[in-house]
Design goal:
By secondary structure, the protein is of the alpha+beta class. The chain is built from 2 helices and 9 strands; from the N terminus they run αβββαββββββ.
Length: 143
Amino acid sequence: MNKLGIVLILTMVFLTASWVWMVSGSKQDPAPSKIPMTLSSQSDEKGDVAVKVTPISLEPGKQAKFEVVLDTHSVELIYHMVKISSLSDNQGNALNPVSWSGGLGGHHLKGELVFPPLKMDAKSIELFISGIDGFDRSFSWNI
């Protein structure tokens, strides 16, 4: 084989490899998978009771769920969370809780506060808990 034949073969290999690389690189990635949104915990430590709220689920069209922790060393935690909590969105919709799993009484409570499904057009929400140790607590997130 002469030098011209070797150059032609090498050129064809290079062009074929370049074409394969361009074709495989031009394919669009499949639609990105829906990654669950992680929303941060928020705390409020007014008075003698610390309240920490962590969103569990804040997806439009689904029940809104929060983990709520109340902690104190001096106050009896006799708060009916379903009665003193509410949730509102940026559209002015207000929701009352449907359940609280954390019980009543003691110095340390932890439970899940559940609300009806959020409206599909909700972009932000505010959780309001009134009268914990004489203070109202407010927690808000963009969704």
